[in-house]
Protein: Serine-threonine kinase receptor-associated protein
Organism: Ichthyophthirius multifiliis
Amino acid sequence: MKAIELRGHEKPISVIKFNFDGDLFFTGAAEKKVNVWRNHTYERIGSFKTNSSVKILDITIDSKYLVTGSLEGTIQVFEVNGGKSIGSYKTKYKCKHLEFSYGNKHLMVLFEDYGSTAANQVGIYDFQFFLKHLIDNNGEPKDDSIPTVCKFSLKEHIANKIRYSYLNKYFYATTTEGLLLKFSDKGELIQKIQAHQGEALAIEFAKDFSIMSTTGSDGCRFWDMDGLKCLRFIKQQVQMNTVAISPLLTGEFEQVKYHCLIGGGLPARDTARFKVILCIYIYILFLKDGGYEIHLCNIMYGEELGSISGHFGPINQIVFQPDGRGFISGGEESIVRCFRFDGSYWENEALE
């Protein structure tokens, strides 16, 4: 299985996102640019020039609007067709994560304070009102002038990511203390569990929301959505930054694959400071490529089926193709890699 490399960025890849129809995908990096690619040909069809480096992005269900967020506190909205910037909204907090609710009525933003406490707040905006406010103010509204529909604090917790659940009923968040938090749609804390040793990072759902997965410093865990019961734990030697669950798990396609892809690697800060000896020790004993491999795992049995090498830095994002027949990954080396599963993936009984 060979990868097609897309070299449209110069800085570490931070986010890869498909539109709802699956014919386009968007890539953002720690630079002032978002690229949009045609999925079937991997042709770059345009770029969006942002005011700040891109931490996170999302696209409306009709692929009409693109929204980007940055750690400088800027939320910027673009028209996808034509690339016109509608405007940017400056806040006094870092924009750590954002995403649309299912149906695109609301835009949720995870804010983090610049201070030493790094306190988190979640702001939920009415997107049509947000859009109208940008247009009425010629794309340059006053800082923090757009009211939220709902706003709540995570108090003593510092979140890495927060996600909408099925039908926008709940929020799930991962924290720097390794916790998994469940909130109501009003921001009330319902449940809190220790999900990982060390940090808890990514959150991903199955296409039908039957299960949820989180990654952290110790590997990847799969959870029951209602009671947050741990169903499977796939241990890894290094930090896992991202997880993707195959859309073929749901059974709506002809073939069923209970597979996931996880990726990460030794963070650069760990190899450059006092942990360098430990990192070298782990590298010699356990790792082939510094942990910079994509791991293909069977969720049903909690086993690793194989690994895909090619990255030479930490992997920040993996997403499955909408049809489950391939995936796209991006990492610290600024290269986006596109894979299509070959015949052995479908014919080998060991990969069932």
Q: What stands out?
A: DSSP finds four helices and 28 strands in the chain.
